[in-house]
Amino acid sequence: MKKTKNNYKIYKSLSRQEAALLNAVEPLIVFSPLEIKRLSGWKSSRISNTLSTLKRKKVILHLQKNKYILSEKVPQNLFLAATALTAPSYISFWTASSYYGFTEQQVSAIQAISTKQYPNFKIGTTKVEVTTVDPKRFFGYAKIQNFALAEKEKLILDCLHWPEKAGGISELKKIINSAWLSIERGKLQEYLIKFRNKSLFARLGYLLEELKLPFPEEFFLRNIPRGFVLLNPSLKPSKKYNQKWKVNIND
To answer: Which residue among 115, 205, 229, 234 is least enclosed by CB atoms within 10 Å?
Structure first.
């Protein structure tokens, strides 16, 4: 490993070997022993021992098997770390709504959508919740500051499909109301068709009418299902129905 200045003197009892490893991985956010070996040429045992001491000193955080991050980089890189550990994935639901400023709620967990199954885990004290989707519905996201984030139009659809992950229908109405002026209507219609779930047409049409927001009503009505759908699919049906939108108002 090429000699570098010790940029980590702020840490107590840091050896030259530890500082050399830290300087090597400084450009990376999430790193692995294999990447350290590529950068340094060190033996696996040396890397393992150095990582263990850095972990004990709380200079690095062990995220998952063979995945580490510099502790000082955690606060500003939570989204990047979360998506790197759940690849392929993007941030959505209440977390993305908060990022866009569509909700005033303080979100304590990072919510990601992936085509793979991952158990919920923590990055430090922050919980990461992963929702698995069919690959056909894994679209509508863009890279923002090195992490993938749901586009506003796809965010609305994700929340309509899983309202409980956006704080329920009352919170979803606030999100839609805040987002609506910045939504690209053509893209939203394209994504609605691509999502292949007619219940979303019914739910969104009903909510937009409730909010008195402008939308292509005929397009929505042409695509609603014949039978009634639950406004919130995670809750039991109520005795209240909206005939026009074929929605059971259960939230």
So the answer is: 234
CA distance 145 to 124: 21
Dist CA 55 CA 51 (whole Å) = 6
Indicate whether 129 belongs to any domain.
yes
For residue 170, give both structure tokens: 């009352």
Shared-domain flag, residues 46 and 129: no
**Domain containing residue 21: CATH number:** 1.10.10.10
Q: Is the peptide bond before 88 cis (omega within 30 degrees of 0)?
A: yes
**How far apart (Å, rounded) are the C-alpha atoms in residues 93 and 110?**
9
> Rounded CA gap, 151 and 188, in Å?
10
Per-residue pLDDT of the chain (251 residues), as tens digits, is: 444 455 554 555 789 899 999 999 999 989 999 999 999 999 999 999 999 999 999 999 998 889 999 999 999 999 999 999 999 999 999 999 999 999 988 888 999 999 999 999 999 899 999 999 999 999 999 999 889 999 999 999 999 999 999 999 999 999 999 999 999 999 999 999 999 999 999 999 999 999 999 999 999 999 999 999 999 999 999 999 999 999 999 99
Q: CB-based contacts of 82: which residues, under 8 Å, 6+ apart? A: 89, 91, 110, 112, 123, 128, 147
- Domain holding 26, by residue range, is 16-73
Give the CA distances from residue 132 to residues 88, 89, 115, 164, 193, in Å, rounded to whole numbers and listed in that order.
Answer: 10, 9, 5, 15, 20
The 8-class DSSP code of residue 111 comes to E
Nearest to 224 by CA among 198, 203, 194: 198
